[in-house]
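Q: What residues go here?
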């Protein structure tokens, strides 16, 4: 279970401190599918990054499976099964897609068929991508899908995705939503997804609106 207690995040804006998150408390049960939505600038991404450890809360507590992780590093949270997909994923010049999937899986060698499976789940033709570098030659939508494939390869207990539909064509988006639905049906992991898309929102067990 993921539990947030009285989470607050403040930042300096040149005129003093501004609250980005104000006293946020919520619980997400094991296997639950939570969608976070709301207007731009409301704090959705900041909330997700705080759970992952990319941002440090000003006050409050974060618990994962009964353990307080508020002050743990990103690496320590990842080792506990928490994964994060950026709204704008990084690129890795010199690293091929199959290498990135292998690193994410934690295996010394990832069978080609298994790597292909993860790419297919996000709407990519595996044969066209396994040997490509994750660099500027790929579009934003392609990098986005490859990043989600690496998260699937990691088989996390908690999957946090920030607008996974951004920059993705309609066919691939349909395949991606099918994958989310399959994961949720199997209860493989807890999912927290930031999205404005009605198709994704309709899959949720609960919807959190942040304004």
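A:
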């Amino acid at each position: 279970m993921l539990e947030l207690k009285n989470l607050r995040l403040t930042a300096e804006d040149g005129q003093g401190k501004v609250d980005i998150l104000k006293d946020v408390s919520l619980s997400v049960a094991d296997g639950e599918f939570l969608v976070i939505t709301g207007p731009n600038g409301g704090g959705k991404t900041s909330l997700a990054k705080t759970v992952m450890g990319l941002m440090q809360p000003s006050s409050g507590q974060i618990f994962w499976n009964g353990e307080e992780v508020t002050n743990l590093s990103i690496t320590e949270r990842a080792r506990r099964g928490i994964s994060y997909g950026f709204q704008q994923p990084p690129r890795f010049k010199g690293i091929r897609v199959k290498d990135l999937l292998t690193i994410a899986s934690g295996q010394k060698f990832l069978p080609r068929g298994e790597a292909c499976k993860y790419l297919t789940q996000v709407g990519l033709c595996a044969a066209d991508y396994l040997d490509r570098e994750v660099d500027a030659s790929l579009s934003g939508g392609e990098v986005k899908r490859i990043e989600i494939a690496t998260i699937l390869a990691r088989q996390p207990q908690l999957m946090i995705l920030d607008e996974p539909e951004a920059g993705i064509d309609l066919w691939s988006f349909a395949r991606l939503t099918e994958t989310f639905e399959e994961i949720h049906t199997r209860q493989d992991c807890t999912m927290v997804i930031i999205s404005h898309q009605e198709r994704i929102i309709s899959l949720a067990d609960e919807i959190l609106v942040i304004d």
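A: Context that may help when evaluating the design: The longest strand covers residues 17-28. The radius of gyration is 17 Å.
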